[in-house]
Design goal:
Strand content: 5-15%
CATH topology: Glutaredoxin
CATH superfamily: Glutaredoxin
Number of strands: 5
Number of helices: 9
Distance between the termini: 9 Å
CATH class: Alpha Beta
Helix content: 40-55%
Amino acid sequence: MQTADTNTQSLFEATLNASMTYDEYVQLTADLAAQNKSSGNTPDDEDLANFTMLNDRRLKRWNKTLKLDTEIKEIISNQIKNLVWLVLTESWCGDAAHNIPVLNKMAELSDVIELRLALRDEHSELMNQFLTNGGAAIPKLIAFDKDAKEIIYEWGPRPSEAAALVAEYKAEHGKLTPEFKEDLQRWYNKNKGEAVVSDFKKILTSH
């Protein structure tokens, strides 16, 4: 747990004020896909535009098919802290397209958890406070206790099970290859959000 320093809290609040709902994020991704564009600093990048189109389909699919188990539903129903889950993301990010719908499904079950999303490249100062191994990896969830004015945990950019797969592959091969990235997408499809839920069972029962 860390009490947000004045600068971090100010950056958080400014980003929160400019943030969007999950439905607005889904619509933004769909709109960008229709225009063959992406969010971020290079909206006309062809590869990122293609990823955005893929993610538009992924978001829609997960919104229809994701199911949460009884245990996480019970854990979430017992939450009493008034939280904001602020997630930094971009339309082109494959990890985001698989993970954020799970976060949304969990937040929808709670009266005290509010999910908001903001674009990383528009809020780089806040992103720089929450780097992963020195990188601006997304999606990055920042959980803020509205009553205590504390950042009480963070999560991302991948569920711990996927992060372990990535770390193992990098250790052996030095970098992530296109083939591995395709394998990771297949892993997400097979896992169906269970690894994200597993992480949050631990997080929510310890905070």
